[in-house]
Specification:
alpha/beta, single chain, 182 residues, binds guanosine-5'-monophosphate
Length: 182
């Protein structure tokens, strides 16, 4: 069997990537999700090894030193990274979805030119801010920081292979599945 592709999906915090990715995996069970490591504390409902591997800063820096990351980045005051071995193992079973931001995505592009890069846009910037507040789990100073970051991220979409709008999670999931031919 040929190796699955890395499908890199980016989009500003609050754009609804998590829901879109879940809908994609519900429809296409051969897709797997690359579970990132992060130093950010878990949000309510987030499970170790499902949403993230929650690690200390020291552990993360050890993983960097050992070259264990396909890519990593520090943003929103935390580290986030893709453990390389896990992504490679999952590729033996089909396409692997990576939910990562543009700085990390660019590192993947340099190392894995065959990967597919998809950027998810909100219907509008106002809608993004509304969704970010609506989630109710992000303090105000972080909302401001994330909106600034979102504007920078959205500027990066020009180098992605495909840009899709999340006006509806089901429709958006279908569109990405068509793009990746799953
Ligand atoms: P959150 O803290 O809301 O779960 O994620 C914040 C941002 O980190 C999102 O834009 C998400 O795509 C990004 N992210 C999650 N995992 C990784 C990773 O492994 N590497 C990089 N570069 N970004 C990640």
């Amino acid at each position: 069997m040929t190796k699955g592709k890395l499908i890199v999906i980016s989009g500003a915090s609050g754009v609804g990537k998590g829901t879109v990715l879940k809908r994609m995996m519900d429809r296409q069970p051969s897709l797997t999700f690359s579970v990132s490591a992060t130093t950010r504390p878990p949000r309510p409902g987030e499970q170790e090894g499902v949403h993230y591997y929650f690690v200390t800063k020291q552990r993360f820096e050890e993983m960097i030193a050992r070259g264990e990351f396909l890519e990593y980045d520090a943003h929103a005051a935390n580290y986030y990274g893709t453990p390389r071995a896990q992504a490679e193992e999952k590729r033996q079973h089909g396409h692997v979805l990576l939910d990562i931001e543009p700085a990390g995505a660019m590192q993947v592009k340099q190392k894995e030119p065959e990967a597919v890069f998809i950027f998810i846009m909100p219907p509008s910037v106002q809608e993004l801010e509304r969704r970010l507040r609506g989630r109710g789990d992000t303090p105000e100073d972080q909302i401001k920081m994330r909106m600034e970051r979102a504007k920078w991220e959205m500027d990066q979409r020009s180098w992605y292979d495909h840009v899709v709008v999340n006006d509806d999670a089901d429709r958006c999931a279908e569109e990405i599945l068509r793009i990746i031919g799953a």
